[in-house]
């Protein structure tokens, strides 16, 4: 038995442990590089004149109020609208379980409260992921003859949002992080969301490598 134990210890040390540790180190380095790319991309405001401003929803409270994330995104979109970047706003986001209204309607309520005319707001309430935000927004834009969009989301989310919207054929005039208007998130919240976005980008890479079809699995 001791001989078997020594043999297993040698096998683990030379043929298993080192490759496993090397893989873990590689994954960690890729994750850190991805997080750095997310941080850098989210620190740049690319707002530019466009046909429409697209706000990506981020939840609804049980009492039908917009969550803090949806509110800050809508607030930034309102600022862009009043600054004349586009004459219309699309609120994109569907219904969550046990919520009385869609993310899109919650976003629209914030916009109206900030002086954006209701006639300038369009609702896309079918989507349940960032990928579906892109898919259904493209359909809505095509129906109105719109081609260029300014995408409003949180800073940590802009890289994946650009990837998916461009994949689905939307001409992205620019990504404009909500933090331009609302200020940075608390560090703990920001790091948590950054971790989720790294996972989201890994998932997109996995789907691309293995040719997986459209899916609703998403991280934000």
Structural summary, described in words:
With 220 residues, the protein is of the alpha/beta class. It folds into 2 domains: 1-41; 52-182, Rossmann fold. Helix content is 54%, strand content 12%. The protein has 7 helices and 5 strands. It has helices at residues 2-41, 68-82, 103-113, 130-144, 158-167, 179-182, 187-210, and strands at residues 52-56, 89-92, 121-124, 148-153, 171-177. It has a 5-stranded parallel sheet, sandwiched between helices. α1 packs across α7. The protein is elongated. The N and C termini lie far apart (51 Å).
Percent of residues in beta strands? 5-15%
Task: Summarize the main sheet.
Answer: 5 strands, parallel
Topology order in helix (H) and strand (E) letters: HEHEHEHEHEHH
Looking at the structure, the CATH topology of the largest domain is: Rossmann fold
